[in-house]
Structures are given as structure tokens and as C-alpha cells.
Design goal:
By secondary structure, the chain is α+β, with helices and mostly antiparallel strands. It contains 3 helices and 4 strands; from the N terminus they run E-E-E-E-H-H-H. It has helices spanning 53-63, 89-92, 102-117, and strands spanning 2-6, 10-16, 21-28, 35-40. The chain starts with a strand and ends in a 17-residue tail after the last helix.
Length: 134
């Protein structure tokens, strides 16, 4: 299967079928957890109320949720910490106030990401953050 970006934030996938290669186009909702619209040239997936096997395969590939993997969009986890003397901006050297430090916030976000992935990684696999965006 091949997939890539499509106009206006959608994705296009070329899905090999038993006899042919099908094209599926998928647009996700803004939060990435739902499908806002889809189309497939097999005929079945071009109806608004039906997901064909090509669209389902494309969604799983795009989201990384293949059946042998537990990775998919929408996973979440919660972690919390109380603000104390050790995690303030003043203590971290990132400011002079006794407020929750930005480095502590980033560490908390990384803890939540690791918790969300805890059931999806195989033995020996690890997760690493690559960017912080607002």
C-alpha cells in the first residue's frame, strides 16, 4: 500500500486488491478521531454511508493501527503533579517566579505520552519526543 497527502488536508491511498489497485481518499475530522468524508473507486466506498475494505485498510495504514499493532490515533493518558518548590521556574532556572516551570510541563507531557504508549510498544521498544508545538 502507498499513501500520501491529498489536497485540503486529506490522504490518498493506493490499495492493492486481489485483481486491481484501488484509490481511496480519506478526510479526518479536525481532532483526527473520526472521518469527515471518504471516497474509493471500487464503488462501495463512494457511498457516504459505507466504508469499503480499501478505505478501512487505508485508515489503518494512515493511523498506524494495523491489526498486529496497538498504535492508533486518539490514544490518551493522564498524569498529574503538584506544583512544589522543586518544579517551579525559579528552581529550574527558567525564570524567577514560583510558578510551574516550562521544563517541568514538557516532562509531564512526555510522561503522558509514554503512559499512552505503554500498551502499544513491544519489549525493547521506546518512545522519544521530537518536537513541542503550541
Amino acid at each position: 500500500m502507498e499513501f500520501g497527502d491529498y489536497e485540503d488536508g486529506g490522504f490518498i491511498a493506493r490499495v492493492k486488491d486481489k485483481y486491481d489497485t484501488r484509490s481511496a481518499i480519506i478526510f479526518f475530522t479536525r481532532d483526527g478521531r473520526g472521518i469527515s468524508k471518504h471516497w474509493c473507486n471500487c464503488g462501495v466506498g463512494s457511498r457516504g454511508d459505507c466504508l469499503c475494505k480499501h478505505i478501512v485498510a487505508a485508515i489503518l495504514a494512515i493511523q498506524g493501527g494495523f491489526y498486529e499493532s496497538r498504535l492508533c490515533l486518539g490514544k490518551s493518558a493522564s498524569v498529574s503533579v503538584a506544583v512544589g518548590d522543586s518544579n517551579t521556574a525559579k528552581a529550574a532556572g527558567s525564570g524567577s517566579l514560583g510558578v510551574f516551570a516550562a521544563p517541568a510541563l514538557i516532562a509531564l507531557m512526555e510522561q503522558a505520552a509514554c503512559a499512552a504508549l505503554s500498551d502499544a510498544l513491544e519489549d525493547g521498544q521506546k518512545s522519544v519526543g521530537t518536537a513541542i508545538k503550541k
